[in-house]
Each structure stands twice: as structure tokens, then as C-alpha cells.
Specification:
Elements (H helix, E strand, L loop, with lengths): L1 E4 L4 H13 L5 E3 L13 H4 L2 E4 L4 H11 L16 H12 L10 H9 L2
Antiparallel strand pairs: 1-3, 2-3
């Protein structure tokens, strides 16, 4: 299985799942149920919902997402590289402050992009 996409919200995830099921594309959602627990800090390594597909279906699935999600971005996932010291430090600060302060958070930036539409 290869990591494909991290949906921006629960509605987008449900929509993509339904499209994949209709097109008979096998998929798996990492942290599908656990990631719904928004208690405290949001951290990609911990509770981000990530869509994974078999490598044979990767390009087809990517094209489907591009056709249904206007501003879809597909980051390069590198599972072989563990989080760096700065990532661990940011995660520790986020946990200790119960998510009230998140250094380097792009959630504000993402919300500003959505407000511009």
C-alpha cells in the first residue's frame, strides 16, 4: 500500500471513499476511527487520516482525486525517514499545551485559504 492523500476534513474523506468504492478502487484509511478523536493536539504523525492504495492503483486513484477535489495536493510521503528532532520538539510543545499552542502550525494558513474563496 502506498500513501496517497490526506483529506482536509471528514466530509472530503467520506466523499473520496464513496467515489473509490463506486470505481472499485481498493483503499485503506489509516487512523480512520482513531483520527476522529479530536481531543487535544492534531499531529500528522499521530492522528491524521491518510488514504492508502495499492501501488497498481496509485495513478488511477490520484487522477480520481484530482477530478473531484479542486485544490488537491499530493505530498511526497517518505516513510523511511523518522521524524526529526524539531518535529518531536513541536509535538511535545503541542501535547503539553493541549493543542492551544502549536509551533509552526499551518492550520491558520489553511483556514485563511478557505476564507479567500
Amino acid at each position: 500500500m502506498k500513501k496517497l492523500y490526506i483529506p482536509s476534513n471528514e466530509s472530503e474523506l467520506v466523499f473520496i471513499k464513496s467515489v473509490f468504492e463506486a470505481d472499485e478502487i481498493p483503499f485503506y484509511v489509516q487512523n480512520d476511527n482513531f483520527g476522529s478523536l479530536y481531543s487535544g493536539a492534531y499531529m500528522n504523525y499521530f492522528n491524521a487520516k491518510t488514504i492508502l492504495v495499492p501501488e497498481d492503483y496509485y495513478e488511477d486513484a490520484k487522477e480520481i482525486i484530482k477530478s473531484v477535489v479542486e485544490d488537491a495536493e499530493f505530498p511526497e510521503f517518505n516513510d523511511k525517514q523518522p521524524p526529526g528532532v524539531s518535529d518531536l520538539f513541536k509535538s511535545l510543545i503541542t501535547i503539553l499545551t493541549l493543542g492551544l499552542y502549536s509551533p509552526g502550525s499551518n492550520q491558520i494558513e489553511n483556514s485563511e485559504k478557505k476564507d479567500d474563496r
